């Protein structure tokens, strides 16, 4: 089904509307799953009742989380309301809920213990996750232009929900970031001599064909090899795959002795939020720094620390040697 002319038309429609590649992959996944559920019937022959039946199946049979149900609905709403021009209207559907687990978090001393077992690029990645509250994909997609040392901020472009946001940047990381920038710019210069550069979003690549030569567009954490751009087909250097830092984290956790907790890349983002609330930062500010659409998502962290806090620096500043 991956080569289906129908799905290719949906992909083309998404790209013409400037949707991110990640959103494209997510929506295509749920549209394909919806079609399989209805025994390969063409979506144009289905409607709102069929969408509700599928969502009910996800909740009752596959026991997916409420947020996953919402993503699936968003994908199908896009398919019908925009691509097929067959509006679904108001669906009489109630999302199935289940008790939400409190996220696992780390104290600053536990973060410090893990960082001590990391070095170089890997240490910088996890320092940014904890120090700026980034998702791992957001961190790996950072480019040279995204850092503002004078303001102590970094910009996350096209984060979850296709939103841009600005978050805090610990001044402790400036030397490591500048050293990494120096290294990647030398790599970019070498790539440019072969007519290759960092991957550029498809629309921008057409508008600014020489952008791959500009230092601003170089990834801070580039991959070790080249690949073909998934949209343009151009040979380029993409950012590092998230399997690399995940492997480094597993080893660091074992060495640090913190094997009694389930620690993932996202644990550092959870810990960023709880440390900000614990230090007195107000919840609306934390919501903005995390890029949460709804403050209710942020409020889960108040349950982690057991009380509400209200107040100004990155939690990484509590660690003397990142």
Automatic annotation (TrEMBL):
Residues 1-84 form the Core-binding (CB) domain. The keyword Phosphoprotein does not apply. One of its GO terms (biological process) is DNA recombination. One of its GO terms (molecular function) is DNA binding. InterPro entries: CB (IPR044068), DNA_brk_join_enz (IPR011010), Integrase-like_cat_sf (IPR013762), Integrase_catalytic (IPR002104), Integrase_integron-type (IPR011946), Integrase_recombinase_N (IPR010998), Integrase_SAM-like_N (IPR004107), Tyrosine_recombinase_XerCD (IPR050090). PROSITE patterns: CB, TYR_RECOMBINASE. It comes from the Bacteria. Keywords: DNA integration, DNA recombination, DNA-binding. Residues 101-314 form the Tyr recombinase domain. The keyword DNA-binding applies. Belongs to the 'phage' integrase family. This is Integron integrase. The lineage of its organism: Bacteria, Pseudomonadati, Pseudomonadota, Gammaproteobacteria, Oceanospirillales.
